[in-house]
């Protein structure tokens, strides 16, 4: 039977009301790239990410000014009615920042800790312990996020030495993966020894190579039941980042691995940060895990239709649906499951349109200038004239109102 493997059992972790793991829907998260000390810019970007559908947003907390800004950003969001939980991303001095800025510690819903960057030698253990004690004091969960760009050097060196002396040495990459996993699980176990509940710990082991990412998460998933955050680090820019992230995360999700995802895209200069949210949503939706927005199926076009009408119409409808979803979530519950088809000619047009909730088959080259429209598998109209696109958009609007509008249901209650 088609479908993903059974979801791996993991312990659910509540992050400001959003539960990651424990069988809950896979959560979409994102990260800002503003200077957190700039309250206004960070507030605006968090708001945009939340509006795009990010269910958790991570912000950098790298210095006193950033830590001091966090409660003000939280306050701005609350006043704007934006409830998205904020996660603080800490490196090197997280123990100090959370100690010196209790309002920051309180305003954040989760602390991200990188065990490779907590401190060095003797200080590492005490600073890690301080971070865990602060998490317990403020009743916050943590993500222990190992990243192979900042892997614990002592651990890696020890494992490399052991491997060199082994009768059956493995590759350097395999040792590196083992070091990443041991760093993550070892740190989580240390946090539990210090008193942090298992339901307060999420793990991630990010690398930038697709095959290594798949291998490391498969191994990690088999060796623990902590909730897992998936992400390909440094995925890159544009289609490269989208494809690499989708390939890696898609395979893991299909295997039942992963409780929350973040797509680490490098935006084009001046680009839109919310793209990473849309990519995460589309990945989860196309694989059938979640539904966020109505799907518009459009054919790729070919020599049978030289007209770009169907491309323009498909884009207009997709843009309209995307822009309307924040409002429609309240007004038209269930609309995110709707499917729309916009097809270029008679070859696949009627067939594909019949499978959608509402679909149109535009005329290809040499066909009669008429566009049949199908609603729930039945042909209901044939559109003609220069304003076919507008007529179809109106039919989509009517379909949504009729099938997802609350007013009639509420009036009948
Ligand atoms: S539906 Fe028609 S126009 Fe579209 S790709 Fe298929 S044959 Fe080409």
TrEMBL record:
[4Fe-4S] cluster binds at residues 299, 302, 345, 352. InterPro entries: Dihydropteroate_synth-like_sf, IspG_bac, IspG_bac-typ, IspG_C, IspG_TIM, NO2/SO3_Rdtase_4Fe4S_sf. Pathway: Isoprenoid biosynthesis; isopentenyl diphosphate biosynthesis via DXP pathway; isopentenyl diphosphate from 1-deoxy-D-xylulose 5-phosphate: step 5/6. It catalyses: (2E)-4-hydroxy-3-methylbut-2-enyl diphosphate + oxidized [flavodoxin] + H2O + 2 H(+) = 2-C-methyl-D-erythritol 2,4-cyclic diphosphate + reduced [flavodoxin]. Its EC number is 1.17.7.3. Pfam families: GcpE, GcpE_C. Its cofactor is [4Fe-4S] cluster. Binds 1 [4Fe-4S] cluster. Belongs to the IspG family. NCBIfam families: ispG_gcpE, PRK00366.1. This is 4-hydroxy-3-methylbut-2-en-1-yl diphosphate synthase (flavodoxin). It comes from Devosia rhodophyticola.
């Amino acid at each position: 039977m088609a479908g993903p493997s059974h979801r791996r059992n993991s312990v659910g972790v509540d992050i400001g009301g959003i539960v990651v793991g424990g069988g809950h829907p896979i959560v979409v998260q994102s990260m800002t790239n503003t200077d957190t000390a700039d309250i206004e810019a960070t507030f605006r970007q968090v708001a945009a990410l939340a509006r795009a559908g990010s269910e958790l947003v991570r912000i950098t907390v790298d210095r006193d000014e950033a830590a001091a800004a966090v409660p003000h950003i939280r306050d701005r969001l609350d006043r704007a009615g934006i409830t998205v939980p904020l996660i603080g991303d800490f490196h090197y001095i997280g123990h100090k920042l959370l100690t010196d800025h209790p309002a920051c510690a309180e305003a954040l819903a989760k602390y991200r800790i990188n065990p490779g960057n907590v401190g060095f030698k003797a200080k590492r253990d005490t600073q890690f312990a301080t971070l865990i004690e602060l998490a317990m004091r403020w009743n916050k969960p943590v993500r222990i996020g190992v990243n192979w760009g900042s892997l614990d050097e002592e651990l890696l060196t020890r494992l490399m030495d052991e491997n060199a002396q082994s009768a059956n040495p493995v590759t350097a990459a395999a040792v590196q993966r083992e070091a990443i996993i041991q760093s993550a699980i070892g740190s989580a176990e240390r946090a539990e020894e210090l008193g942090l509940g298992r339901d307060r710990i999420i793990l991630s082991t990010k690398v930038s190579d697709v095959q290594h990412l798949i291998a490391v998460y498969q191994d990690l998933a088999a060796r623990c039941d902590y909730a897992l955050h998936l992400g390909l680090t440094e995925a890159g820019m544009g289609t490269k980042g989208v494809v690499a992230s989708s390939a890696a995360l898609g395979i893991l999700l299909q295997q039942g691995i992963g409780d929350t995802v973040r797509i680490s895209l490098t935006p084009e200069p001046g680009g839109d940060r919310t793209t990473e949210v849309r990519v995460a949503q589309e990945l989860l939706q196309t694989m059938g895990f979640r539904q966020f927005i109505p799907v518009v199926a459009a054919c790729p076009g070919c020599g049978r239709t030289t007209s770009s009408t169907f491309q323009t119409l498909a884009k207009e409808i997709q843009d309209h649906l995307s822009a309307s979803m924040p409002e429609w979530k309240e007004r038209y519950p269930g609309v995110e499951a709707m499917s729309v088809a916009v097809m270029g000619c008679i070859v696949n047009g009627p067939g594909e349109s019949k499978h959608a909730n509402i679909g149109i088959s535009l005329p290809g080259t040499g066909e009669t200038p008429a566009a049949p429209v199908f609603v729930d598998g039945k042909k209901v109209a044939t559109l003609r004239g220069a304003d076919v696109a507008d007529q179809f958009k109106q039919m989509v609007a009517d379909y949504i109102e009729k099938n997802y509008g609350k007013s009639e249901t509420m009036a009948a209650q």
